[in-house]
Design brief:
It contains 16 helices and no strands. Helix 3 packs parallel to helix 5 (137-169), helix 8 runs parallel beside helix 14 and helix 11 packs across helix 13 (378-393). It is an all-alpha fold. Mean pLDDT is 84; it is low at 8-12. 54% of the residues are buried.
Length: 471
């Protein structure tokens, strides 16, 4: 039987994104996610910092591990995108609370099945995989100390991401962000304790970093599920398995292309790094330092891509397509204006920012040149990730996957290799700029093709509509 108290709690904890100023809905959903995404990025930096103090083999192992785990993590991002698209459209269309709870439970069940399967496969094949990637004996031993516990943590990550998608689909990005922050804070706090054996903890080295990740994810997902259950966003419902195949199809319709789309970028960056390696080791180090600074600069744009999905989904589900188009146009304008500010900051402070992550003067010079020029084009990358999220929420995940594929494999990768072989590191920079600018233009074209932008005038006038103080 339906639980009326759960239904009432679900209604009380739902933010209606189909009413009020569109800019306010975008800000409410995106701003908190800046903290969550920054926290997630800080985990990788903390792991690299602490493990780098153990020695060169451990730091090299980190270099092998993170591109692979980033690609695998794309499954969790894809499934959360699929869950968000299905749930937010249902919320916007006015589906009853029991139906949305059932869909949320279906999404979590699907995530568990897929993530446990993937985790088991990773645990079985990682020795062969990293050997194929060129990891030597010393590095392989460190990888073997890390990957089993990381594999164990992966299902908890997937469930946490899907539960966070449940919060965002109901218009609550703040809880989602703080769950991400909690997982990161626990991870970073446990890193030195378990890696170096501080405060009576065992000295576990590489294993300690993976255990810290596992503990952070377990505690965060437990809290996320508790909050979602208490608020009535998840919970007991009649006919639990009713429509489970239809739910699976809806989630995977967006989830699989979105997962592939998110896996493209780390895979492509690994191949671009191989092109950079033809220039020299200092160029690789400088490129790595620059991309770490770049990842921090992109946090607000990534947060916007997380926030726009529920806004588009709820409004499209409510058949308020004009509001969805307005949200897309306003998000695009934010990308342009924020991109201009980032370009200015990176142009002025490229050298000191590069020095924070570079290990020497030569590395820093490569990094500074990258930041100075590629910074001019980051608004284009923002257009791409924002358009991808909007199209996923609109059930047009194949379009977003095609956009990501085109940016990496039709533009960035071939241009990077051509540039590296003909112009050295300057060619890598030129390739990144060209890929961002052309893909940004393609994002606008794709948004129009999927009905998320209506015409040029709508894009031009979007910043003037429903701003504070405007009647």
């Amino acid at each position: 039987m339906p639980d009326q108290s759960q239904d009432d709690a679900a209604q009380d904890n739902k933010r209606d994104l189909t009413q009020g100023p569109v800019w306010r809905a975008l800000a409410a959903m995106s701003a908190p996610m800046s903290f969550g995404i920054f926290a997630v990025l800080s985990v990788g930096l903390a792991d690299a910092f602490f493990l780098g103090q153990l020695g060169g083999a451990e730091l090299a192992a980190v270099g092998f591990i993170y591109p692979v785990t980033s690609a695998i993590t794309s499954l969790s991002i894809g499934l959360s995108a699929g869950a968000n698209a299905a749930l937010s459209q249902g919320v916007g269309a006015g589906d009853d609370a029991e139906a949305t709870r059932r869909l949320g439970l279906h999404a979590i069940g699907l995530g568990l099945v897929l993530s446990v399967t993937v985790a088991l496969l990773v645990w079985l094949v990682y020795p062969l995989l990293f050997r194929a990637l060129g990891a030597g004996d010393g590095v392989s031993n460190n990888i073997a100390a890390y990957m089993p516990f990381w594999s164990l943590s992966f299902p908890f990550l997937v469930v946490m991401m899907i539960t966070n998608a449940v919060f965002r689909a109901h218009g609550d990005s703040l809880t989602s962000a703080w769950i991400m922050v909690l997982a990161a804070v626990i991870n970073v706090a446990l890193d030195p304790l378990l890696i170096f054996g501080m405060w009576g903890m065992p000295e576990l080295g590489m294993t300690g970093a993976a255990v810290a990740t596992l503990v952070g994810r377990i505690l965060a997902v437990a809290l996320a599920l508790y909050i979602a259950w208490r608020r009535g966003l998840l919970g007991w419902c009649g006919g639990l398995f009713d429509g489970v195949l239809a739910s699976t199809r809806r989630i995977l319709h967006v989830g699989l292309p979105a997962a592939f789309s998110n896996a493209i970028n780390p895979a492509g960056m690994a191949l671009v790094t191989a092109a950079v390696a033809t220039v020299g080791e200092a160029a690789v180090a400088g490129f790595g330092a620059a991309t770490r600074v770049q990842s921090m600069a992109l946090v607000p744009l990534l947060a916007l891509s997380s926030g726009i999905g529920p806004v588009i989904g709820q409004n499209w589900g409510a058949e308020k397509t004009d509001r969805a188009r307005e949200a897309t146009a306003k998000a695009f304008w934010f990308c342009v204006l924020y991109g201009a500010a980032v370009a200015l900051v990176l142009g002025i402070f490229a050298e000191p920012l590069a020095g924070l992550f570079a290990s020497g003067d030569e590395d820093a010079a490569f990094a500074a040149n990258y930041l100075r020029f590629v910074g001019l084009s980051l608004f284009g990358y923002g257009l791409v990730v924002t358009a991808n999220a909007a199209m996923n929420a609109r059930d047009k995940a194949v379009w977003s996957m095609s956009l990501s594929l085109g940016r990496i494999f039709a533009l960035y990768l071939p241009l990077a290799w051509l540039g590296a072989l003909t112009m050295g590191f300057a060619g890598i920079i030129a390739a990144a700029v060209a890929a961002n600018l052309i893909a940004g233009w393609a994002a606008i074209v794709s948004a129009r093709g999927t009905g998320l932008l209506q015409n040029d005038n709508a894009l031009l006038t979007a910043p003037l509509k429903d701003l504070p103080g405007k009647p």
